[in-house]
UniProtKB/TrEMBL annotation:
The lineage of its organism: Bacteria, Bacillati, Actinomycetota, Actinomycetes, Micrococcales. The modification N6-(pyridoxal phosphate)lysine is found at K35. CDD domains: PLPDE_III_DapDC. Belongs to the Orn/Lys/Arg decarboxylase class-II family. LysA subfamily. Its EC number is 4.1.1.20. This is Diaminopimelate decarboxylase. Its cofactor is pyridoxal 5'-phosphate. Keywords: Amino-acid biosynthesis, Decarboxylase, Lyase, Lysine biosynthesis, Pyridoxal phosphate. Coiled coil: none annotated. One of its GO terms (molecular function) is diaminopimelate decarboxylase activity. Pyridoxal 5'-phosphate binds at G239, E281, P282, G283, R284, Y390. Gene3D superfamilies: Alanine racemase (3.20.20.10), Lyase, Ornithine Decarboxylase, Chain A, domain 1 (2.40.37.10). InterPro entries: Ala_racemase/Decarboxylase_C, DAP_deCOOHase_LysA, De-COase2_C, De-COase2_N, De-COase2_pyr-phos_BS, Orn/DAP/Arg_de-COase, PLP-binding_barrel.
């Protein structure tokens, strides 16, 4: 279940907060990261609130286009885009392709030249800052699949492609990022618009974002020094944290925007650069809190467990009619959620409970620890908040469970955004399956 008003309000608050913080120097584009949750209706809400939409595959691109997002307002991400996906982006005339590798740049160039067009390209860099929740790691070598490193490679092939001129003091020479930027400026069919970095997810502290922004601006300055070009755009990615439980205290968009704007303006002033056009890419911070999952209670068990003092106590297991197929975040990230009894008011005692799914995995846990009324009974409804992001979009048919519907609520009205999956939808792909 998705609150349209909540989604719209969060979308608007990011747009307004960032516009205000970066004015009058520059403008800001807010790209809603569609992978958090995308449907044609949601793409339309985002567009109506003045947001652009980020996609990360041909399928997400198709959905954004079907939702009426103006192609100019769509970005295409991905570390392994196929030629078909790049071609589709070029055919649709989308606003930007975020190139993730040298290999991809060459293919974008060839496809754009063949199509008689120029592709608007951003380069995804890995600034050596990786952040999550309350911590960030600043590292020279980011051991991960995304983007282009700023660290000079010992790899000779890369280093030779951008051999230092005598007297040059460019810290990025020989890095995969520098090699790619150099190539992007030469390649026909490529219009290099700017740099991009996305440093992680569920981040609460500003430091990681600020460090990454400073690195990118320093890279922009080196490009200006060496090639005399000032790239017009800078994309600072997403990853802004939300409250999954009461323990999380996310910052308001105004606070995030003001901290980043101060850093960017200061770093640009220090390098004597114009402040580039900024973009950000929040996903969960827009759609996560808007979503609530409703489960129906089935079997309950009291299981004896050892207490920290060695005595034996019991844990109440409450099984529901879904689980890791509709919310994989517990299994993937040990994610924490909370839950409340919905649909009826119950007074009296509460017991420490664990809400589990119905899948054949003991790790199939929806909410690890929550106090639920002891009167919770079969067929009661449980509501799990903050499930708008990365739940439906990561859903599966494990154990051949059909996926639930996604319903929007707005001003007391409901609307089915994505209908419930039928057994025919799911099993009909099996060529031996015959429906009645
Ligand atoms: C996933 C992703 C985002 C959105 O991350 P959130 O944590 O949902 O804000 C933004 N940009 C890129 C490149 C991503 O891969």
């Amino acid at each position: 279940m998705l609150s349209e008003a909540d989604f719209r309000a969060r979308a608007r608050s990011f747009r307004e907060a960032f516009a205000a913080a970066f004015a009058p120097e520059t403008e800001v584009d807010v790209f809603y990261a569609g992978k958090a949750f995308l449907s044609t209706h949601v793409a339309r809400w985002a567009t109506q609130e003045g947001l652009c939409v980020d996609t990360a595959s041909g399928g997400e691109l198709a959905l954004a286009l079907a939702g009426g997002v103006p192609p100019q307002h769509i970005g295409l991400h991905g570390n392994n885009k196929s030629d078909g996906e790049i071609q589709r982006a070029l055919d649709a005339g989308i606003g930007r392709i975020i190139a993730d590798s040298l290999d991809e740049l060459e293919r974008i160039s060839a496809l754009a030249v063949a199509a008689g067009t120029r592709a608007p390209v951003m380069l995804r860099l890995t600034p050596g800052v990786h952040a999550s929740t309350h911590e960030y790691i600043a590292t020279a070598h980011e051991d991960q699949k995304f983007g282009l490193s700023l660290t000079p490679a010992l790899d000779l092939e890369d280093a030779e492609a951008s051999a230092p001129e005598p007297g040059e003091t460019n810290p990025y020479l020989g890095s995969p990022a520098w090699t790619a930027a150099t190539r992007a400026l030469q390649l026909p069919g490529v219009e290099l618009r700017g740099l991009h970095a996305h440093i992680g997810s569920q981040i609460f502290e500003p430091t990681g974002f600020e460090l990454a922004a400073s690195k990118l601006i320093s890279f922009l300055a080196s490009l200006r020094t060496t090639y005399g070009v000032e790239l017009p755009e800078l994309d600072l990615g997403g990853g802004h944290g939300i409250a999954y439980t009461e323990a999380d205290a996310p910052r308001h968009p105004e606070a995030i925007a003001e901290a980043l704007a101060a850093t960017v303006k200061q770093a640009c002033a220090a390098e004597d650069l114009r402040v580039p056009r900024i973009s950000i890419e929040p996903g969960r911070a827009i759609v996560g809190p808007a979503g609530v999952t409703l489960y129906r209670v089935g079997v309950q068990k009291n299981v004896p467990v050892e207490a920290p003092d060695g005595s034996t106590t019991s844990r109440r297991y409450v099984a529901v009619d879904g689980g890791m197929s509709d919310n994989a975040r517990g299994v993937l990230y040990d994610a924490e959620y909370s839950a409340v009894l919905a649909g009826r008011r119950v007074t009296g005692e509460h017991a420490l409970s664990r809400i589990v799914g119905k899948h054949c995995e003991s790790g199939d846990i929806v909410v690890r620890n929550v106090y639920l009324p002891t009167a919770t009974a079969r067929d009661d409804l449980l509501a799990v908040p903050a499930t708008g992001a990365y739940c439906h979009s990561l859903s599966s048919n494990y154990n051949y469970l059909t996926r639930p519907a996604v319903v929007a609520v707005h001003n007391g009205e409901s609307q089915v955004l994505i209908r419930r999956e039928t057994e025919q939808d799911m099993l009909g792909r099996d060529t031996g399956f015959a429906a009645d």
